[in-house]
Design brief:
There is one protein chain. The protein is of the alpha+beta class. The chain is about 35% helix and about 25% strand. Strands 3-2-1-6-5-4 form a six-stranded antiparallel beta sheet, sandwiched between helices. Strand 2 and strand 3 form a beta hairpin. Helix 1 packs antiparallel against helix 2 and helix 1 runs parallel beside helix 4. The model has no long low-confidence stretch (mean pLDDT about 95). Bound molecules: methionine sulfoxide. The site of methionine sulfoxide has 15 residues, from strand 1, helix 3 and strand 6.
Length: about 150
């Protein structure tokens, strides 16, 4: 399924006020993992109040031990500090990387901004080497902008 087809589906999920915010976030994870072949783990991390750490939110894929990630640690923790997209074509080439599963080859993390503040991120792991393009970044920026409206 193309990103252009997925975008209105994401908007529909976000605007469904009959579901809780976490239910809506989980459904977004589910449709992304289902419809993009190389998205194999899809989840959200959010800043824990004023603490310099991220907490795992809704996700789809293999369970992870990394439910709390300090700012600066791993790809996710670096995005919490840099406020920038982080595309990792080859996770084995990163020294500041937290491995969740040996099958993961690549990762993309896009921050979520509310009133210009980085409140969290969407994190996607792929079992395919180097699968992400600018189209993924633009699509996931759309997703994070939509998610931001929930906060
Ligand atoms: N690989 C991430 C940790 C989170 S897992 O991918 C679910 C990182 O280096 O921050």
């Amino acid at each position: 399924m193309t990103f252009e087809t997925l975008k209105p589906q994401v908007s529909t999920i976000v605007s469904n006020t009959e579901k809780t915010v976490n239910e809506r976030l989980l459904i977004i994870c589910e449709i992304l993992e289902k419809h993009v072949a190389y998205y194999n783990w899809v989840g959200f991390y959010f800043r824990n109040g004023d603490k310099e750490e991220l907490l795992l939110g809704p996700y789809v894929g293999a369970p992870t031990d990394h439910t709390v990630i300090p700012f600066g640690k791993g790809i996710c923790g670096q995005v919490a500090v840099s406020n920038k997209n982080f595309v990792v074509p080859d996770v084995a080439a990163q020294d500041n990387y937290i491995a969740c599963s040996i099958s993961v080859k690549s990762e993309i993390v896009i921050p979520i901004f509310v009133n210009e503040k980085n409140i969290g991120q969407i994190d996607i792991d792929s079992n395919t080497p180097d699968p992400f393009t600018e189209a993924d970044e633009r699509f996931l920026e759309f997703v994070t902008a939509q998610v931001a409206t929930l906060f």
